[in-house]
Amino acid sequence: ELLSRLRGKLQTLWEERELVLWEAQECAQRGRELEATVRGLCKPNEFERYMMFIGDLEKVVSLLLCLSSRLARVQNAMRRIDGNTDAEEKRSLSERHKLLSRQREDAKDLKENLDRRERVVSGILAKYLTEQQLQDYQRFVQVKTSLLIEQKDLEEQIKFFEEQLENLETSIP
Protein backbone atom coordinates (compact mmCIF):
# COMPACT_ATOMS: atom_id res chain seq x y z
CA GLU A 1 0.00 0.00 0.00
CA LEU A 2 2.86 2.37 0.85
CA LEU A 3 4.53 1.61 -2.48
CA SER A 4 1.29 2.38 -4.27
CA ARG A 5 0.89 5.69 -2.44
CA LEU A 6 4.48 6.72 -3.17
CA ARG A 7 4.02 5.89 -6.86
CA GLY A 8 0.77 7.87 -6.90
CA LYS A 9 2.46 10.86 -5.25
CA LEU A 10 5.30 10.67 -7.77
CA GLN A 11 2.83 10.54 -10.64
CA THR A 12 1.10 13.66 -9.29
CA LEU A 13 4.44 15.46 -8.93
CA TRP A 14 5.48 14.51 -12.47
CA GLU A 15 2.18 15.90 -13.77
CA GLU A 16 2.67 19.10 -11.79
CA ARG A 17 6.19 19.39 -13.19
CA GLU A 18 4.83 19.07 -16.74
CA LEU A 19 2.34 21.83 -16.04
CA VAL A 20 5.04 24.09 -14.60
CA LEU A 21 7.29 23.39 -17.59
CA TRP A 22 4.41 24.33 -19.91
CA GLU A 23 3.87 27.54 -17.89
CA ALA A 24 7.61 28.24 -18.12
CA GLN A 25 7.44 27.92 -21.92
CA GLU A 26 4.49 30.33 -21.97
CA CYS A 27 6.43 32.74 -19.76
CA ALA A 28 9.48 32.45 -22.04
CA GLN A 29 7.26 33.33 -25.03
CA ARG A 30 5.97 36.41 -23.19
CA GLY A 31 9.58 37.23 -22.40
CA ARG A 32 10.54 37.07 -26.08
CA GLU A 33 7.61 39.32 -27.00
CA LEU A 34 8.57 41.79 -24.27
CA GLU A 35 12.18 41.68 -25.41
CA ALA A 36 11.14 42.59 -28.96
CA THR A 37 9.06 45.50 -27.64
CA VAL A 38 11.89 46.78 -25.46
CA ARG A 39 14.41 46.42 -28.29
CA GLY A 40 12.18 48.50 -30.55
CA LEU A 41 11.60 51.30 -28.03
CA CYS A 42 14.78 51.67 -25.97
CA LYS A 43 18.26 52.90 -26.78
CA PRO A 44 20.78 50.10 -27.37
CA ASN A 45 22.55 50.62 -24.03
CA GLU A 46 19.20 50.59 -22.20
CA PHE A 47 18.15 47.44 -24.02
CA GLU A 48 21.48 45.84 -23.04
CA ARG A 49 20.82 46.74 -19.40
CA TYR A 50 17.39 45.15 -19.64
CA MET A 51 18.81 41.97 -21.17
CA MET A 52 21.56 41.72 -18.57
CA PHE A 53 19.01 42.09 -15.79
CA ILE A 54 16.72 39.39 -17.22
CA GLY A 55 19.64 37.00 -17.69
CA ASP A 56 21.00 37.64 -14.22
CA LEU A 57 17.54 37.25 -12.68
CA GLU A 58 17.41 33.58 -13.58
CA LYS A 59 21.03 32.96 -12.57
CA VAL A 60 20.77 34.64 -9.17
CA VAL A 61 17.42 33.09 -8.25
CA SER A 62 18.66 29.64 -9.33
CA LEU A 63 21.87 30.12 -7.35
CA LEU A 64 19.96 31.11 -4.21
CA LEU A 65 17.61 28.16 -4.55
CA CYS A 66 20.46 25.72 -5.12
CA LEU A 67 22.46 26.99 -2.15
CA SER A 68 19.42 26.99 0.11
CA SER A 69 18.60 23.43 -0.91
CA ARG A 70 22.15 22.23 -0.31
CA LEU A 71 22.29 24.03 3.02
CA ALA A 72 19.02 22.42 4.10
CA ARG A 73 20.40 18.96 3.26
CA VAL A 74 23.54 19.63 5.31
CA GLN A 75 21.44 20.92 8.21
CA ASN A 76 19.30 17.76 8.06
CA ALA A 77 22.45 15.63 8.10
CA MET A 78 23.76 17.63 11.08
CA ARG A 79 20.50 16.96 12.97
CA ARG A 80 21.07 13.23 12.49
CA ILE A 81 24.50 13.42 14.16
CA ASP A 82 24.65 11.28 17.27
CA GLY A 83 27.24 9.68 19.51
CA ASN A 84 28.07 7.12 16.82
CA THR A 85 28.97 9.71 14.19
CA ASP A 86 32.72 9.91 13.72
CA ALA A 87 34.60 13.17 14.30
CA GLU A 88 35.70 13.48 10.67
CA GLU A 89 32.10 13.39 9.42
CA LYS A 90 31.05 15.96 12.03
CA ARG A 91 33.93 18.24 11.03
CA SER A 92 33.14 17.81 7.33
CA LEU A 93 29.47 18.66 7.85
CA SER A 94 30.37 21.68 9.97
CA GLU A 95 32.78 22.99 7.32
CA ARG A 96 30.24 22.45 4.53
CA HIS A 97 27.61 24.25 6.61
CA LYS A 98 29.90 27.26 7.14
CA LEU A 99 30.88 27.37 3.47
CA LEU A 100 27.30 27.07 2.21
CA SER A 101 26.11 29.68 4.73
CA ARG A 102 28.74 32.15 3.48
CA GLN A 103 27.90 31.39 -0.13
CA ARG A 104 24.19 31.87 0.53
CA GLU A 105 24.89 35.22 2.22
CA ASP A 106 26.93 36.26 -0.83
CA ALA A 107 24.05 35.16 -3.08
CA LYS A 108 21.64 37.22 -0.97
CA ASP A 109 23.91 40.23 -1.57
CA LEU A 110 23.74 39.49 -5.29
CA LYS A 111 19.94 39.34 -5.05
CA GLU A 112 19.83 42.73 -3.29
CA ASN A 113 22.04 44.18 -6.03
CA LEU A 114 19.74 42.59 -8.61
CA ASP A 115 16.70 44.17 -6.92
CA ARG A 116 18.36 47.59 -7.19
CA ARG A 117 19.10 46.93 -10.87
CA GLU A 118 15.47 45.92 -11.37
CA ARG A 119 14.35 49.30 -10.03
CA VAL A 120 16.73 51.03 -12.48
CA VAL A 121 15.45 48.92 -15.39
CA SER A 122 11.85 49.64 -14.36
CA GLY A 123 12.65 53.34 -14.36
CA ILE A 124 14.10 53.08 -17.85
CA LEU A 125 11.13 51.08 -19.13
CA ALA A 126 8.66 53.51 -17.54
CA LYS A 127 9.92 56.15 -20.00
CA TYR A 128 9.00 54.01 -23.01
CA LEU A 129 6.26 51.57 -22.13
CA THR A 130 2.57 52.19 -21.61
CA GLU A 131 1.17 51.53 -18.15
CA GLN A 132 -0.21 48.18 -19.37
CA GLN A 133 3.13 47.19 -20.92
CA LEU A 134 4.94 48.12 -17.72
CA GLN A 135 2.52 45.99 -15.72
CA ASP A 136 3.11 43.14 -18.19
CA TYR A 137 6.87 43.50 -17.62
CA GLN A 138 6.45 43.45 -13.83
CA ARG A 139 4.15 40.44 -14.05
CA PHE A 140 6.67 38.70 -16.33
CA VAL A 141 9.50 39.21 -13.80
CA GLN A 142 7.29 38.02 -10.95
CA VAL A 143 6.02 34.94 -12.82
CA LYS A 144 9.51 34.03 -14.08
CA THR A 145 10.82 34.11 -10.51
CA SER A 146 7.92 32.14 -9.05
CA LEU A 147 8.16 29.50 -11.79
CA LEU A 148 11.87 29.03 -11.09
CA ILE A 149 11.07 28.53 -7.41
CA GLU A 150 8.21 26.16 -8.17
CA GLN A 151 10.34 24.12 -10.60
CA LYS A 152 13.14 23.75 -8.04
CA ASP A 153 10.68 22.78 -5.31
CA LEU A 154 9.06 20.13 -7.52
CA GLU A 155 12.45 18.72 -8.53
CA GLU A 156 13.42 18.43 -4.85
CA GLN A 157 10.14 16.71 -3.97
CA ILE A 158 10.44 14.32 -6.91
CA LYS A 159 14.00 13.47 -5.94
CA PHE A 160 12.94 12.86 -2.33
CA PHE A 161 10.02 10.60 -3.23
CA GLU A 162 12.07 8.69 -5.83
CA GLU A 163 14.70 8.01 -3.15
CA GLN A 164 11.99 6.94 -0.70
CA LEU A 165 10.45 4.62 -3.29
CA GLU A 166 13.82 3.14 -4.20
CA ASN A 167 14.72 2.57 -0.54
CA LEU A 168 11.36 0.95 0.13
CA GLU A 169 11.58 -1.29 -2.95
CA THR A 170 15.07 -2.50 -2.00
CA SER A 171 14.01 -3.18 1.59
CA ILE A 172 11.06 -5.38 0.59
CA PRO A 173 12.12 -8.94 -0.28
UniProtKB/TrEMBL annotation:
Its main location: cytoplasm. Residues 1-173 form the ASD2 domain. GO terms for biological process: actin filament organization. InterPro entries: ASD2_dom, Shroom_fam. Residues 90-120, 144-171 form a coiled coil. It comes from the Eukaryota. Keywords: Coiled coil, Cytoplasm, Cytoskeleton. One of its GO terms (cellular component) is apical junction complex. One of its GO terms (molecular function) is actin filament binding. It is found in: Cytoplasm, Cytoskeleton. Belongs to the shroom family. This is SHRM1 protein. It comes from Hemiprocne comata.
